[in-house]
């Protein structure tokens, strides 16, 4: 089922959280709402779920306007950053919550809950309470709870935000597989560009309540619409009037056309990549990223004078 | 589980602290209550039984329970609503409301009784109008309920507010996305989460309602067999040198309060789910 927001505006007092936001989420896709904190991404997700009412604009699910339809009748699954587990209920009761509300026969509820718990790999923990689960297990439990009612769309608000790095990576891969199997239209909020790039088919990049750019991960990285997008989706460095990625800085030992002299101030070896911090004659600093092989061939050393220029096809003009 | 810290200090300070606490409790709580029990039965069981089964005594007991049975549910509902407003709503005057809720703690019950007479008495602001429409507040049940509601108002609010704040709204939001109305979400998800705070608040309210003396003494007019609650009965008998009646009544009051406390303890143990602490299989 597709999701669409049309010119949605939401204010909290004097603060404008969403400023005329229009976004389309195609049916069956996995879309990331990416942006720094305060960019309005969570608010947009809550507006789609009906947990916030927009001051202006419309929300459409499958082409039908639902702006004034209350949350409980929108058939959306929602996963909260801090789990929002029902603490006084067991894992089984949590997952069964929505099914019981729908007055399904008890055996049917039991069967579906068992199925879901297998799916989220919590089969043996059905009688535990949320307090007895780890963060990752809790998040899988609330995911099962949201999926139990077969929502038309799945909305996830920073779903991995409260987890440590390793569990996070595991859950990410798992969520991607789950989405590929179930094809439920999903939108997740994140401030982590890597997470967005790894998981999403499409990224909606937001800043200060507005949409800066919508596109697939490669689009955003290689054809950013503006400086903000460029800076948010990957590392950037300034080269005169140019803004470019550090790996698009060419480092040479001999001068050539359009090269500038630079001194290596610091070299950082990070396994596969080597980062060179350079100083230009005018005192400006520049960051260059090289592969280990490139750096080995050039045999770079601290204090050495090199010649740098931007890789011509990868320039993004600052003045644009 | 955490290992015990190494024992270096002597046990003497610990024992002294424990002893002091127990001695204090014994002196100010256990001894006087024990004395009431002992004194009650000084002349045997028969006179006491006789004294607390007179029509006046039974009516006083009935009235005490009736007043509490009306005031406690009222304050439970109001207390819940007030806590929700205090925790979840933001509006000018919220802090004032927060302060006003504590008024019954700060104001003497005698003042509360007089204030109620000023408003609802025959010559009070509403009293005349109400009397003209056949409703007598002062010197009858409505006034006593009002006085009891007033003095026992803060307990539920004060016990529920912090737990409600801690529980937050996310669980309710999750319940709504799963298909329940806002009120349904509150009843199914938040209410069970705050039940201990609520139960404690209700217990305190009940205990306070049963034991109320000052405000009720003023608004009831203390008509024996009509508007005399058990606390008033006890004082009345004490003044009249009826020791069996006074101590018998006091004992019934103490027993009622004890029942309420035991009731809550049982409720707490009856449902074997952990509210916070994980159970042993988690080790």
Quick tags:
heterodimer; A: 320 residues; alpha+beta; six-stranded mixed sheet; five-stranded antiparallel sheet; 9 helices; 29% helix; 32% strand; elongated; B: 283 residues; mainly alpha; 15 helices; globular; disordered C terminus
Written description of the protein model:
The complex is a heterodimer of chains A (320) and B (283). With 320 residues, chain A is an alpha+beta fold. Chain A has helices spanning 41-49, 91-101, 106-119, 135-148, 165-182, 193-199, 217-222, 227-233, 292-298; strands spanning 3-12, 15-25, 30-34, 56-61, 64-65, 76-79, 153-157, 185-190, 202-207, 210-215, 237-239, 242-244, 249-252, 260-270, 273-279, 285-291, 305-310, 316-317. Chain A is elongated. In chain A, 40% of the residues are buried. Mean pLDDT of chain B is 88; it is low at 272-283. Chain B starts with 11 loop residues before the first helix and ends in a 13-residue tail after the last helix. Chain B contains 15 helices and no strands. Chain B is globular, with a radius of gyration of 23 Å. The interface between A and B is medium-sized, with 29 and 24 residues.
Quick structural summary:
The complex is a heterodimer of chains A (320) and B (283). By secondary structure, chain A is α+β, with helices and mostly antiparallel strands. Helices cover 29% and strands 32% of the residues of chain A.
What gyration radius of chain B follows from the Cα positions, in whole Å?
A: 23 Å
* DSSP helical segment count of chain B: 15
Can you list the strand order of the major beta sheet of chain A?
6-7-8-3-9-10
Beta-strand level of the residues of chain B, as a percent range? under 5%
Strand content of chain A: 25-35%
- Please describe the biggest sheet of chain B, giving its number of strands, its sense, and whether it closes into a barrel: none
Largest interface comes to: A-B, 29 and 24 residues
Apparent shape of chain B: globular
* Total helical segments of chain A: 9
Order of helices and strands of chain B: HHHHHHHHHHHHHHH
Mean pLDDT of chain B: 88
Main β-sheet description of chain A: 6 strands, mixed
Assembly type of the chains comes to: heterodimer
How far is the first residue's CA from the last residue's CA of chain A? 38 Å
């Amino acid at each position: 089922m597709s999701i669409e927001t049309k010119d949605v505006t939401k204010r909290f007092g004097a603060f404008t959280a969403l400023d005329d936001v229009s976004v389309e989420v195609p049916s069956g896709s996995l879309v990331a709402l990416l942006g720094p904190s305060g960019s309005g991404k969570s608010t947009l997700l809550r507006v789609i779920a009906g947990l916030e009412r927009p001051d202006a604009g419309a929300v459409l699910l499958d082409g039908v306007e639902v702006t004034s339809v209350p949350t409980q009748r929108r058939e959306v699954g929602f996963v909260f950053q801090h789990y929002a587990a029902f603490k006084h209920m067991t894992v089984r009761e949590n997952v069964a919550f929505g099914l019981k509300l729908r007055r399904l026969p008890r055996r049917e509820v039991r069967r579906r809950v068992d199925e879901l718990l297998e799916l989220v790999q919590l089969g043996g923990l059905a009688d535990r309470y949320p307090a007895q689960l780890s963060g990752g297990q809790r998040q899988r439990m609330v995911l099962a709870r949201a999926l139990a009612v077969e929502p038309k769309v799945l909305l996830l608000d920073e779903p991995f935000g409260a987890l440590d790095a390793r569990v996070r990576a595991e859950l990410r891969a798992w969520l991607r597989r789950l989405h590929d199997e179930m094809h439920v239209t999903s939108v997740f909020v994140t401030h982590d560009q890597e997470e967005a790039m790894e998981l999403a088919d499409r990224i909606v990049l937001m800043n200060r309540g507005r949409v800066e750019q919508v596109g697939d991960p490669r689009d955003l990285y290689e054809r950013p619409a503006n400086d903000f997008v460029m800076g948010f989706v990957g590392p950037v460095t300034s080269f005169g009037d140019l803004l470019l990625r550090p790996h698009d800085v060419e480092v040479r030992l001999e001068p050539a056309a359009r090269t500038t002299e630079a001194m290596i101030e610091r070299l950082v070896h990070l396994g596969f990549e080597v980062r060179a911090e350079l100083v230009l004659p005018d005192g400006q600093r520049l960051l260059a990223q090289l592969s280990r092989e490139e750096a080995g061939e050039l045999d770079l050393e601290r204090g050495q004078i090199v010649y740098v220029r931007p890789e011509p096809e990868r320039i993004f003009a600052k003045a644009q | 589980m955490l290992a015990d810290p190494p024992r270096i200090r002597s046990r003497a300070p610990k024992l002294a602290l424990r002893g002091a606490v127990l001695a204090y409790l014994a002196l100010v709580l256990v001894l006087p209550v024990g004395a009431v029990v002992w004194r009650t039965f000084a002349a045997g069981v028969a006179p006491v039984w006789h004294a607390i089964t007179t029509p006046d005594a039974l009516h006083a007991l009935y009235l005490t329970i009736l007043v509490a049975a009306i005031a406690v549910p009222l304050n439970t509902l109001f207390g819940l609503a007030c806590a929700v407003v205090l925790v979840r709503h933001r509006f000018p005057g919220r802090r004032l409301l927060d302060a006003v809720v504590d008024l019954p703690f700060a104001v003497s019950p005698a003042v509360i009784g007089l204030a109620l007479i000023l408003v609802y008495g025959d010559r009070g602001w509403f009293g005349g109008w109400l009397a003209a429409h056949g409703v007598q507040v002062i010197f009858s049940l409505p006034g006593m309920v009002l006085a009891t509601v007033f003095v026992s108002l803060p307990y539920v609010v004060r016990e529920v507010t912090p737990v409600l704040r801690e529980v937050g709204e996310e669980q309710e939001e999750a319940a709504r996305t799963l298909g329940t109305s806002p009120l349904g979400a509150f009843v199914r998800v938040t209410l069970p989460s705050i039940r201990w705070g609520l139960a404690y608040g209700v217990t305190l309210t009940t205990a306070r309602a049963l034991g109320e003396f000052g405000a009720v003494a003023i608004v009831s007019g203390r008509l024996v067999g009509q508007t005399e609650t058990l606390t008033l009965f006890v004082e009345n008998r004490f003044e009249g040198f009826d020791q069996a009646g006074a101590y018998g009544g006091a004992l019934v009051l103490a027993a009622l309060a004890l029942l309420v406390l035991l009731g809550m303890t049982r409720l707490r143990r009856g449902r074997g789910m952990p509210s916070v602490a994980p159970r042993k299989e988690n080790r």
